[in-house]
Design goal:
Shape: elongated
Helix content: 25-40%
Radius of gyration: 37 Å
Structural class: alpha+beta
Length: about 700
């Protein structure tokens, strides 16, 4: 062992002497020959490091949401000169390479000084490697420490300086320098030891980051904090001597404690990040439309609230910009790494029972077809449909109520009555036409229970449907990636016409708010699935739609879990955390703003019983004879002489019980009439919806295009 040490010492002395000779020019000719020989033996320089970089997922502003370790398990985050604190850069140059900006890759003066100190003291006092030489070693890592290795670094340093600018070289060092364990690069080290980006560092933090790459394993603050502190002191002393910091700043930095543990890397919007990576697995950087600050706030809120509700409960939240369909926050579960809550499952895409969360779309379809109006009287009394007898959640009944009140209080019986008139198959078809994946039991036709949660649907699709209401019926395509705007000219599916969508918004804005929340600001609806397995709350205004789900990821029941007590408080808190005032929807021009008494007679009341005179007589089914559904109607706006003609359209019906009431885009056309024809004067060309209602409450609707 002693002989080995003597041989190593001899090699070090010989190497230092040779470097000193080269530095002083006493062996210039030999140095030139050696330099050329080494340069020829190395081959071309690859300036792109072979090491894989960490994949980054960023928010809409470019802030880090989640980095991924490299395949070999290392944290190697790209970073530029502009991304780090200027004081850190000044300390780095003062300590490592004071002549970095003026030398050509090799500081011969520093090499000579290092060799002389080694010869005089018998030990390494200072290094002679420049930052460029260190970059050469990092780009082409080699385990050996010898004169040949040093010569290779000198050659490569010259090549690097010829091919790159100083800031580019510095950026390579900042990205590849080792900081202990699996940390590489100043950005990874700053996040791991201080929990933040290196853009703003204290003097003590900057000094520690300068010191660590000198001996990254023996100075790791999480393992050897005292050694790390001593190394930090040396950097501070050098920074003081070079005028980088003042004596007062040096004293304050010395008092700052050294971190003794690593901090977990950011993992915001983990499920959305996973989805982006799966979509584009070869991309190095993924930029999402998510607002990082809002995402962090919602994740903290959900974790805190769910800790009080139970150990196995999870929750999911989506925040959508209604104008673009961009997802501004995506909370897929509580605790991505929480196995008890099954946090790795993205519950925004899990098929669950929506409870009453789909009721607004029953009412929207009823409003659109002219079957009902928000002020239409509905019956909330015990009723049976074959073997199916719906009951209200509180097992009580309120008698005659308006559609507005029935929806605001989420009464089951009136909703099922409307669904019975519309037809459950028609209702499910409308949701599917709007782009929602609605799951019904296999080999079973949709029944009336679909209105009360007897289907499966994802939180993502429910969010899209509610966002469609906020957009006047036009359902958006949700986009997580930043800049993924809708395709120009693309026609979005519709879940309701603009008037019906506004009616639903106006009704739900009056829904009673949960305790400690201010009502009347957003339109919202809750839902609770059978057996207390799922709790929902979805709210929207003109700008945003926010949807919340709470439950167990394994589908287990949680007694007492309801949308109102579990999900609604999260919804209202989420809206408050957006930092914006609610924005009401504009009233569409054809909305009928009247009370029950001023409605057309067929819209005032929906009764299950029919007049005996009508029931006793065979009446043909009500249908619109003209114009037919989907027709293009030429209004003849120009007469034979080339002059303008007043547009008129004849409306004709067949069957049904007189009198008939006609509505165009939800607005009555005159009074109820005993004739089966009506005359309507259009405002102009475009798409329009025509509905006829007979005395028995039967309806028929067509959509036509006027030209």
């Amino acid at each position: 062992m002693r002989g080995l040490l003597r041989r190593r010492g001899a090699r070090l002395v010989a190497g230092a002497l040779a470097l000193a000779l080269v530095a002083t020019g006493l062996a210039g000719a030999a140095a030139v020959v050696g330099y050329r020989y080494v340069a020829a033996s190395l081959g071309p320089l690859d300036l792109v490091p072979a090491q894989a970089r960490s994949v980054l997922v960023l928010d809409r502003a470019g802030a880090l949401l989640r980095p991924y370790a490299t395949p070999e398990g290392r944290w190697r985050l790209p970073v530029g000169v502009a991304d780090v604190d200027p004081t850190y850069l000044a300390m780095l140059l003062a300590y490592e390479d004071a002549r970095f900006r003026i030398h050509a890759g090799v500081d011969w003066r520093a090499l000579a000084r290092a060799a002389g100190q080694l010869l005089a003291d018998g030990r390494i006092v200072s290094g002679g490697s420049t930052l460029t030489m260190q970059v050469a070693r990092l780009v082409e890592p080699r385990a050996e420490r010898s004169l040949a290795a040093k010569l290779r670094q000198i050659v490569r340093a010259g090549e690097i300086e010829a091919a790159m600018g100083k800031d580019e070289i510095l950026a390579l060092y900042l990205s590849l320098a080792p900081y202990g364990g699996n940390l590489e690069g100043v950005r990874a080290a700053s996040l791991a030891y201080f929990g933040r980006e290196p853009k703003r560092l204290s003097h003590a933090e900057a000094a520690l980051l300068v010191a660590l790459p000198q001996s990254p394993e023996t100075r790791r603050p999480d393992r050897f904090p005292e050694v790390a502190r001593v190394a930090r002191e040396r950097v501070l002393d050098r920074a003081l001597a070079r005028g980088v910091i003042t004596a007062r700043e040096r004293e304050a930095a010395a008092r700052e404690p050294v971190p003794t543990a690593r901090i977990a890397f950011p993992m915001l919007a983990a499920h959305a990040a996973d989805a982006a990576l799966a979509e584009r697995p070869h991309a190095d950087v993924h930029r999402l439309a998510i607002d990082g600050a809002l995402q962090a706030s919602l994740e903290q809120m959900v974790a805190r609230r769910l800790a009080r509700l139970g150990p196995n409960l999870s929750a999911a939240i989506l925040v959508v910009d209604n104008a673009t369909g961009e997802v501004r926050a995506h909370v897929g579960s509580v605790g991505y790494l929480d196995h008890a809550r099954r946090g790795a499952i993205d519950m925004t895409r899990a098929v669950r029972s929506p409870g009453s969360a789909l009721k607004p779309f029953i009412y929207a379809l009823a409003f659109e077809t002219g079957l009902a109006h928000p002020e239409t009287i509905l019956e909330d009394r015990p009723v049976r449909y074959g073997v199916y007898a719906p009951e209200n959640f509180d097992l009580a009944y309120q008698g005659a109520v308006t559609a507005r009140r029935a929806l605001q209080e989420s009464l089951n019986v009136p909703a099922v009555a409307l669904l019975s008139e519309l037809g459950p198959a028609r209702f499910v078809a409308r949701l599917r036409q709007a782009g929602a994946r609605v799951v019904v039991p296999r080999e079973t036709a949709p029944g009336l229970a679909v209105g009360l949660g007897g289907v499966g649907i994802t939180l993502e699709d429910v969010t899209r449907l509610y966002s469609g209401l906020a957009r006047g019926g036009s359902v958006p395509t949700l986009g997580t990636r930043a800049g993924a705007l809708p395709i120009p000219g693309a026609i979005a599916p519709s879940v309701a016409d603009p008037v019906a969508a506004w009616y639903v918004f106006d009704v739900l804005r009056g829904a009673p708010a949960p305790e400690s929340a201010l009502g009347g600001r957003i339109a919202y609806k809750t839902g609770t699935s059978y057996g207390f397995r799922d709790a929902w709350a979805i709210g929207f205004d003109r700008g945003l739609t926010i949807a919340v789900w709470v439950g167990r990821a394994d589908g287990g029941a949680t007694p007492g879990l309801t949308g109102r007590n579990a999900a609604a408080p999260l919804l209202f808190d989420a809206f408050a955390r957006t930092g914006r005032e609610p924005q009401p929807l504009a009233v569409p021009p054809h909305a009928l703003l009247v009370g029950t008494a001023d409605l057309p007679p067929p819209l005032r009341h929906i009764r299950r019983d029919r007049p005996k005179t009508i029931a006793a007589t065979a009446v043909a089914r009500l249908a619109i004879a003209f114009p037919p559904d989907g027709a293009r109607v030429d209004l003849g706006l120009v007469d034979a002489e080339g002059g303008a003609r007043e547009p008129r359209l004849a409306l004709k019906a067949q069957g049904g019980a007189l009198p008939l009431t006609w509505l165009v885009d939800g607005v009555p056309v005159g009074a109820a009439s005993l004739r089966r024809e009506a005359d309507w004067r259009p405002d102009g060309a475009g798409f329009t919806r025509i509905t006829v209602i007979d005395a028995a409450g039967e309806t028929d609707t067509v959509s036509v295009r006027l030209e």
